[in-house]
Amino acid sequence: MSALRDAAMNSKAWPFEEARRILKRYDGKMPAKGYVLFETGYGPSGLPHIGTFGEVARTTMIRRAFQTISDIPTRLICFSDDMDGMRKIPDNVPQPEMLALHKQKPLTAVPDPFGEFESFGHHNNAMLRRFLDTFGFEYEFISATDFYKEGRFDEILLRAAERYDALMAVMLASLRDERQQTYSIFLPISPQSGRVLYVPLKNVDAKAGTVTFDDEDGTETTLPVTGGNVKLQWKPDFGARWAALDVDFEMYGKDHSTNTPIYDSICEILGGRKPEHFSYELFLDENGEKISKSKGNGLTIDEWLTYASTESLSYFMFLKPKTAKRMHFDVIPKAVDEYHQQLRAYATQDVAAQVNNPVWHIHNGNPPESKMVVPFAMLLNLASVASAKDKAGLWGFIQRYAPGASPETHPDLDAAAGFALRYFDDFVAPKRVFRLPTDAERAAMEDLRGRLAAWDGGLDADALQTMVFAVGKDYGFEPLRDWFKALYEVLLGASEGPRFGGFVALYGVDETIALIDKGLSGTLVA
């Protein structure tokens, strides 16, 4: 264990860098509360998106890294701000007309448009928890509605009333003049309509712990700040939550980073210690726009899991968290193959290299052996030419290429075969565009066909690749990638593809000859 801990203490992997920062927060000593608290926040205004998963996945990676370098106990809380008023109707849910009748009500007071749960907030919370449970995360869930109504926030809310002027000074300094006129850190919930009210307060009585305001019909109303009668605006709520729970670490998207000084100040005014932060870059959709829960753009967790394993998604989340990344369907094949490349590399690495390998962080230091003897990208190309309708159709080719493989002994490959068929049908097949070869390409392909017909080297992928490479050189393709691009466009209907020698080994020499004949005759174009 000492070798592992020594390697972890020197690792440049970002989870270990963050873990060491948290350990330094207490100089390696036990916190007074008896544990280090990690938190992730969730705004359930729409269905959870893949960025929400990424926040918990990455926080879990840091938590595991911390557990490797320290014996201090840890907790991870997933906090849902489900008392937030529903400000707009998500684009990707049913019954928008019904939801419009409940705008500005707390999300846990809005009926569930799916008709499955107590409220819209409860529905979205359940979706979040289902997604997180799918990945086996260890976490404790806290609902803001419960937190407020059960009195667990009361001490901080009363302190906020006492220190109202100091808190308001922080907030007003960040607001435009027009907003300053009506702003308050407290949002009362109307006893009449049940809506969260963005109204100026007429009085804050610190001694009584109450706020006074005019309700929507003009009636002057006084409410206690405790018991779920008011909630804090979201920026003060952020910092107040840190103080109430004594949070040690929270990560959030770059769009929050400018508010970090505000969150920290609120926390400290309320008697807390600001946590360690980690600001990650945002996920973007295919058009380069930020993924949004209300828009429903970008990938969902369920969509990724339709086409690839949970581990490949975790791998994608591990990579360069401070770099903005497109989150679209076309990133899936690369993530799958890179994940398995790292699994294969792990077994050959020493401890120092292993703790820097993404799969260490995905599998908590105990990654499995990869049985993906055929890359996912190659399975997609096989699906393109094999006319297979199910996994069994692909396995006929796979077992000729790797006789020792079977669905039972290679379950990850078996699952990937099913994923590849789905991915091909939905994304590759509709976009395939075949073309006829140029005269120069035709001559080279006819030569390649002749060499394959005379081939007696078995299914040696490297030897076949060398032979394909030699044909391109002999026919003067410069750069040589133009030769492979021609093969892909004429035979596979795409501008990119696999190592062609490996493809021939998997698909078969005779089958590849027949495919070349189709490409040269124009059958594929037709």
Give structural notes.
With 526 residues, this protein is an alpha/beta fold. Among the domains are: 2-144 and 233-283, Rossmann fold (3-Layer(aba) Sandwich), CATH 3.40.50; 376-427; 439-521, Arc Repressor Mutant, subunit A (Orthogonal Bundle). 48% of the residues lie in helices and 10% in strands. It has 24 helices and twelve strands. It has helices spanning 2-10, 14-25, 50-69, 96-100, 120-134, 144-149, 154-162, 164-172, 177-180, 234-245, 260-269, 301-307, 310-318, 332-346, 351-354, 358-362, 376-386, 391-401, 411-428, 439-453, 461-474, 481-492, 500-507, 509-521; strands at 36-42, 74-80, 140-143, 186-188, 203-205, 210-214, 220-224, 230-232, 249-253, 276-280, 283-284, 325-326. The chain has a five-stranded parallel beta sheet with strand order 3-2-1-9-10. A three-stranded antiparallel beta sheet has the order 5-6-7, with no helix packed on it. A two-stranded antiparallel sheet has the order 4-8. The radius of gyration is 29 Å and the shape is elongated. The mean pLDDT is 93.
Task: Summarize, please.
By secondary structure, the chain is an alpha/beta fold. Helices cover 48% and strands 10% of the residues. The termini are far apart.
